[in-house]
C-alpha cells in the first residue's frame, strides 16, 4: 500500500536523509514564526519530557496547513545532570557542552509526533539512548570546534560525523542519536494503521 502524502515539519538534514534512505517521498515544511523556546514556554514537567512536548507542538502547527497529509515532527535533546543541552549558540557554549559531556555518559532523547490529516488522529512517543563519551583534551575540543560540526546539533556533537571519534559506546537506538528513531517511527505509524515496511520495501522481481 502506498503511503499518504507526507510532510516533514523539520529543516534537519539528518531527518531528511533518514526518511529518504527509507524510500519515502515527502514535503519539507519547517516551522516558521515560532521558536522551540516559545513552544516550551507552557512546559513545566521534567526536563527529560521536553522533546516529547515540543515534537507534538511542531506536528500540530505544521498539520494545520498540511491538509490530508500525514505530518511528521521530531525534537532531539541531550540531557546531562538534568541539564538540557540544545544546539550551542556560540563556540564558548559548544566548548562548555563538550567539557560537561567529556568522560561521561549522557542521555539523548528524541520526541516524535505524528498527525494523520485524513483521520485527525495524533500520536506521539519518544526514544531514549545512553551515549558514553571518552575524556576530551583541550586540543580535542579546540579541533572539533574548528571543524564547525558542533553548532547545529543538540549537545554540540554529531555521532554520524567527526563526533564519532569521541564516542566509546551507546546503549539503545543509534538513529535516535542521529536525530530520528526509525523503529519508534514505525511503531507510531502502526498505531495509525500504517505499515512502514510496506511503504519502504518493494518486492524484488524474479
- Bin the strand percentage: 15-25%
Number of strands: 7
Element order, helices and strands? EHEHHEEHEEHEHHH
Helical run tally: 8
Share of residues in helices = 25-40%
Distance between the termini: 20 Å
Radius of gyration: 18 Å
Average pLDDT metric = 91
Gross morphology: globular
Weakly predicted, low-confidence segments: none
Describe the protein's architecture and organization.
The chain is an alpha/beta fold and 206 residues long. Helices cover 33% and strands 23% of the residues. The longest helix has 14 residues, at 50-63.
Structure described in brief:
The chain is of the alpha/beta class and 206 residues long. It contains 8 helices and 7 strands, in the order E-H-E-H-H-E-E-H-E-E-H-E-H-H-H.
Summary tags:
206 residues; alpha/beta; 7-stranded mixed β-sheet; 7 strands; 23% strand; globular
Set down the secondary structure blueprint:
Layout: E1 6-8, H1 13-21, E2 27-28, H2 36-39, H3 50-63, E3 70-80, E4 83-85, H4 91-101, E5 105-116, E6 122-133, H5 138-147, E7 167-171, H6 174-178, H7 182-191, H8 196-200
